[in-house]
Amino acid sequence: MPEFQQTAFILLSIMILASAFCVVLFRNLIYSALSMIGCFLGVAGIFILLHAELVAAAQVLIYVGAISVLVIFAIMLTGHRTGDLRLFFHKQAWVAVPICAVAGIALMVVMATATYNATEDAQNPSDDAIASLLFNEYAFPFELVSLALLVAIVGAVILAMKEKNQ
Amino acid sequence: MTPLQQYLALAIALFFIGSWGVLARRNIILIVMCVELMLNAINIALVAFSNYSPTGAGRGEVFVFFVFALAAAEAAIGLAIAIAMYRLKERLSIGDFDEMKG
Question: Do residues A59 and A43 touch, judged by C-beta distance below 8 A?
Fold first, then answer.
């Protein structure tokens, strides 16, 4: 990678990992949600470094614009801003650390030792190519995903709806 | 480390921070947020593989759009369940929901 991209990658990585740690460690849920937005923005930057500008734009629109707002709405609606400290620093939290560390290190070793048939620099697939893949080759999965989204929206409305007659 | 491996290392680190959050925290909304972090890590890996592949560039990006749509569906359903649970019990800790216990 060129010098500039290397620097940008390191800065974005620090931003992503630090805000991901903040999501897990903050007691106040609003703070967690705000650090989650920081993490999503960092991931959008990583997509731009990978020459996936369309995906980066969709990331900002969908994650930063929609999902974060949904999460903050849920926090506000439940009014349950802070977690109980006793519920956070319990046994389960400390058991989870070695499990994740071991699995993560194992995957890192596999990733570092594998051989890849990769190009030197990230390629830049045109938006036309992605669109024609999406609407020709993957047209059926695309329709299936939109159906799943529709079902999820209807289900979410029904789940969150107040029952009037009971 | 090759550039591809750097991106994959970032994706692995983010994925396991997310899974640590899912395992360690007990608030339902926070668990949904950590699942979103894990899905983001998967997206980084998909785009990195797609754009460093000598053939089939762009194919992974199509799958990222599917992941986006399903992540949105998952967040909507997960948070609706959290709100319904809160209405039922006024609590959001997963330890409080043990109705199915025999």
Answer: yes
